[in-house]
Each structure stands twice: as C-alpha cells, then as structure tokens.
Amino acid sequence: MVVLATDRISFSYDKTQVIDDISLSIDQGEFVGIIGPNGAGKSTLLRLLCRILVPDTGTIHLFGENIKIMKNRIQAQRMAFVPQETHFSLNFAVEDIVRMGRFPYLEPFQKITKHDIEAINKALTLTQTASFRSRPILSLSSGERQRVVLARALAQQPDILLLDEPSSHLDILHQQGIMESLRTLHRDGTTIVIVHHDLNLASLYCQRLVVLHEGRVFTQGSPNEIVTRDTIQTVYKTEVDIIKHPRARVPQVILKTGGHSA
Ligand code: ADP
Predict the structure, then answer these.
(1) Nearest atom in ligand 1 to 164's CA
(2) Residue with CA nearest ligand 1 atom 18
(3) Which homologous superfamily does the CATH classification assign to the domain defined by 2-222?
(4) Residue 212 CA, closest ligand 1 atom number
(5) Is the CB of 215 under 6 A from ligand 1?
(6) How far does residue 44's CA lie from ligand 1's centre (Å)?
(7) Domain ranges of the chain
(8) What pLDDT digit, counting tens, does each position of 11-62 carry?
(9) Is residue 188 exposed (0-12), middle (13-18) or buried (19+ Cβ within 10 Å)?
(10) Dihedral (C-alpha) 18, 20, 23, 24: value to the nearest 10 degrees?
(11) Side-chain-facing half-sphere of 117: CA atoms under 13 Å
C-alpha cells in the first residue's frame, strides 16, 4: 500500500527551480534513503513532503489524501519530521519537549493520559535520552539535543517518520545508535524516509535508495543496484571504489585517493 506519493511536483525558490517534476511513491513499511550531492534538492523535497513548503505544481498524497487539504492534527498523527537542526529559544526540560509530541492527540487543556506517558517513556528510552529527561534543553550538546528532537517525533507515534540528516552532529557511536533505533521502529512497522549524506550508513540501513541529482530523481533501487562506481562517480563527480561490507554484504564507498603510501 502506498502511504506517501508525489505526483509530478516542482518547486522553485524565487526563480531558481530546485525540484523538477518528481514523482515518487513510498510503500507502507519501507525504509527509504534519499541521497545525492549537496544542493540536489534533498532537504527541499523532505520539506515539501511534510508541507513546510508547498509545491508550485503537482500534488502530494498521504494515505491517499491530498495533504494540501489535510488537517494539521491528522497530518501530525500520521507523519513526523526531524529537521537537520532545531533552534530552541526557550529552555524547556527535555521531558516537556518530548511531551509536545503528544499534542496532536490531545484536546485543548486535556491532561495527558497513561497511554501518552507510555509513548513519551518509550521515545525517551529508544533515543537514549531518559537519563537526562529533567535537564534543560539548552544545557545539552548539539548531538544530545538532536536525539531529543527525534524523541519528540517518536512520541508522536507517526506511521511515517521523515528525517533530514538526523545524525550529522553525532559521533559514530550515536550515529549507529540513531540508525539502530530507526531499524527497531521500522521492524515495529514505521515507514522511514531519511535524507542521508553518509552513503555507507544509507547503504547499511535503507532498503531502497533514491538518488536526487539537480532536482530530479536520477535513479532508485536497492543499495546493491544503486551504490555502484558509475552512479556515484557520475552524481558526486568524484572517483571512488566500492567494496562489500564484510558482514552486511552491502556496498560501501571508499574514496579513491592515494593518501600517504608506504
Ligand atoms: P540538499 O538538501 O540536497 O543539499 P537543498 O534542498 O537544501 O539541497 O537545496 C537545493 C537548492 O536550493 C540549493 O541550491 C540551495 O542553495 C537552494 N536553497 C535551499 N534553501 C533555500 C532557500 N530558503 N532560499 C533560496 N534557495 C534555497
């Protein structure tokens, strides 16, 4: 079943077109990675998918309904978005921020229920943020804050989670932690669409990769089909070698630079 679909969407900032006639379908339960060089339009596509931006032409359907006319609350129950960076001007406690993920389910002034508390605790545990749940957000490192933003999105219990380079501020331990959390969510039925600049992580965790290039879908398929020397060299304009991950048997990209030879 298709849960999210774009039909020939295009978008320009002022007069510069950055999304050019993209049609893309995401099936329920997929784990899709959007990759491509800087400026390809990946973040813009994600912002269109979650209605932060509105396409100039074309349509987007979420569970068969045009998102243009969908109520915010319904959209937020179905889809959550984790942006690349979030700026906090107020110094809320972590737990209060994660609790905001429950707003789409609450009537004005309604008290949170046992179910809401369970969703919040689960989100804190999955993102390994429970140990600092009482701390003010501005006292955390940027990597810790990013995990709190993910926790807020998980507390929303969305069917679809959209993430824009969620691990770009994180060290490799926490990058892996986030990707493993996403894998767990995916196994539990959440559809994941993630923009990733790290081709090797994308290849390790995603089932399908969509390559954006100059605002268009250049190609898409499984990591084995997509992460090839020809495709990577053409799109990223850099010489690479491709090796197989020793355990996962998926392609991994290494730069074809001499380094310091012995
Ligand atoms: P990616 O995520 O693939 O790096 P983006 O979607 O961020 O690409 O950007 C695509 C193009 O749109 C780039 O050329 C970028 O400079 C431009 N762009 C992004 N955001 C804006 C904006 N708010 N105003 C004008 N141009 C923008």
Answers:
(1) 2
(2) 13
(3) P-loop containing nucleotide triphosphate hydrolases (3.40.50.300)
(4) 3
(5) no
(6) 6
(7) 2-222
(8) 999 989 999 999 999 999 999 999 999 999 999 999 999 999 999 999 999 9
(9) exposed
(10) -30
(11) 4
